[in-house]
Every structure is written in C-alpha cells, then in structure tokens.
Amino acid sequence: MGFIARVKTFRTYARQGDTVYVLGLRGFPDVQGGVETHSENLYPLVAKPNMRVICATRSEFHNPAITEWKGVHFLPIWAPRSRFLEAFVHSLLAVLCAAVIRPSVVHIHAIGPALVTPLVRLFGLPVVVTHHGPDYDREKWNKMAKTVLRIGEWAGMKFATERIVISPVIKEWVERRYQRSSNLIPNGVPIPSLDSTQEILASYDLEKGNYVLLVSRIVPEKRHFDLMESFEQLTPGRYKLVLVGGADHPDDYELAVQERARSNPNIIMTGVLQGSNLKEIYEHAAVFVLPSSHEGLPISLLEALSFGLRCVASDIPANLAVGMPESNYFPLGSIADLSALLERKLSMEWTSAHRQETRAWVSSHFNWQDIAKATTEVYGRAIH
Question: Does the pLDDT of residue 83 top 80, yes or no?
Fold first, then answer.
C-alpha cells in the first residue's frame, strides 16, 4: 500500500471510531531509544477494537515490510538525517498528515517534537504531550538547539489539551514553571523470563557474572568515561566492562569512547543489541551501572532491575526517582565513589532470592498494564 493510500485508509479508521495518532519517535519494534522502547511496550496495550493506534515513524528507521505490529498501524514519513532537523521536520510533516487523517487525539512524545503542539491545536485536534525529560540539559546540544528545545517545552506544556510526565521531578517543574496540571504516569518495564542461552556471551569471550554492564546511547550525558575510569580502578582482570549501544549520529564523542575502549582489552563495545542478544547480555551481567548526568526516567535501569540485577546509578533526580535503596547511588561524576561502590556490589553475595525480590519490586511499581490504562484514561479526557 502506497503512502497516499495509507493516509486515506487511516482517515477512514478515524471516521469509524476513536483513533490515537502518535508522533515524536523514530519507530518500533527494535529501534534504539528510550521513547522508542516506551512506545513499543505501551501502544500494543492501548490498541483495542475501540481504540485504533497509528504511529507516525521516521522512514529511515522503519522496516517497510512492517505495516502493522501487535495492533499498532504505522505511517512511515521521511525525515532528514540531521541531528538538528530530524525531529522537527518529521513532526511538522506528521502533523500535516494528522490534519488530513483527523484522529480523535494526537499524542506527541518529548519536548523537541512538542514544538508543533500549537499547530495541532490550530487544526482543531486535541493533543496529549508526554514530557520525557528536559532534553535541553543534554550535553550534545549547542546553545541554539537548547533554546529550541526550551521553546518546545513551553509550547507543549502551554498548548496541550492534556500533559503526561514520567517522574515527580518533571511534574513539579511543569506545575511550577508553566502553571499547568499534569498526569504522572511513569515508564514501565516488562518482567522477562530468566532462561537465556549464553551464545552471545561466547562471541564476546564473556562468562556469566564476570562483567559490568551499561546499556545506553553513546552520547556525552551517559558519562562513559566516568565508568571506564572507575572500572579500571578495580582489580585488574577480575571483571570485564561491556558497553552496549550506539550513537544517534556518529560523532567525535563516539569515536573517543571507541578509542578509549580499544586501549583496554577488558572493555568491550558491542554496538546496538536487540531481542534475544540484548536479553542475554542483561541477564548474565554481574552489575548494571548508569553513571549518566541526564535522564527522564531511565528505561535501561528499569530493564536491568527487571532481570534482578544489582544496580548502581548516579544520584541525579531522575535516577533517584526510580526509588532504589540509597546505597545503590553515588555522587554524579565521582570516580572514586563509583569505583568503591562497584567494589562493594561485586563483593556482595547475590542469591536467586535477591534477584526474585528485585524483580517483584520493579513489577509492582512499573507495570505496563497499569500505565496503558492510565494513558487511555488521559486520552478519554482529551477527547471528551
């Protein structure tokens, strides 16, 4: 089915009943990114016979063979491969398509794409905006980009019909800065089975329980150098460090991380892993570390907890909002504290009972079924 035919089909869907039209992400399934993972888990649960879901994806990242997945319909739309223009241009084109389709509600994810919120309202459509975090705090953005992101936050929070925030920190900020109420709906995490093989471990010369893990994009705010330096202060040769992920757009930071990793044979960069390979890497890690300086509500940390791992994170507000014990956090940027905390965690006995207790805790606090129900209720308020 061609692009025009697909738009016409979706317009017919919108005339037949409630339809939510999603934009602000690259796509799913198996596309790297926090918003992408969030959407991959959320929208199959939202999609029901009485609620169709259409997701506007970026064609560069979308498998053209996938037109529908677990009840979610896709509309791939072109976007430039530019760090500064990709999100805005795609969001603008997606809104123009929404104006033709006329969905019941438009759902925009993240404050960059939220720049187009006033245009959605101008077209007479209700809009929900999810604030996933203050992206202007990310180190990769220059001054102009940070300004545009702040304007996007203002436009999204001021003009949205309903607002969703993923952490108490963001909720307090939105209500204080913009005098707007918001719906606190956190990220969630599915609880995986613990039955992975060890095939991917063998390919990287890893053994179960002998490596420290970070899963993230290769971007400055993830603080890879802090982790590598802290890791190198551990007993040499006792453990390996595995860095999973890639950069959105190859740049000097990624090259610098790769060069530093090559200097130590115990530091392994796998690139982006998906599906069973990623599951296997998570399940058999000794400790998961998130040393980042910026997060919304960190999905990779929730994923690590869902496998029952010992976890260590920097003490930024977004990581603290996960609610792990205080002993799991270290002061942001402190190499000595991170290294000492890693030593303590690695020396602890971590039994099957500890693992199951951790999995039960994260399941009770970050359940996708509850999140989908709460999100659908927000749609109802926006539509009616």
Answer: no
Q: Residue 251 has what pLDDT?
A: 80
What amino acid occupies position 380?
Answer: G
Nearest to 55 by CA among 87, 17, 24: 24
Q: Are 187 and 319 in contact (CB under 8 A)?
A: no
Q: Compute how many other C-beta atoms are within 10 angstroms of the C-beta atom of residue 106.
A: 31
133: helix, coil or strand? coil
pTM: 0.85
| Angle at CA of residue 302, ends 298 and 307, nearest 5° | 150
DSSP designation for 129: E
pLDDT > 80? residue 123: yes
Residues 6+ apart with CB under 8 A from 194: 283, 307, 308, 355
H helix intervals, the chain: 3-16, 34-46, 86-101, 117-122, 143-159, 168-178, 199-203, 224-231, 252-262, 275-283, 299-306, 317-320, 335-347, 352-365, 368-383
* Domains of the chain as residue ranges with CATH: 3-188+367-383 (3.40.50.2000), 199-365 (3.40.50.2000)
Q: How far apart are CA 162 and CA 129, in angstroms?
A: 7
Pairing status of strand 52-58 against strand 72-77: parallel
How far apart, in Å, are the Cα atoms of 261 and each of 1, 32, 141, 275, 346?
Answer: 45, 21, 24, 24, 21
Question: How large is the angle between the packed helices 335-347 and 224-231, nearest 10 degrees?
Answer: 60
Grouping H, G, I as helix, E, B as strand and the rest as coil, residue 132 is: coil
Mean pLDDT value of segment 50-65? 94
**Angstrom distances, CA of residue 331 to CA of 13, 313, 319:** 51, 9, 11
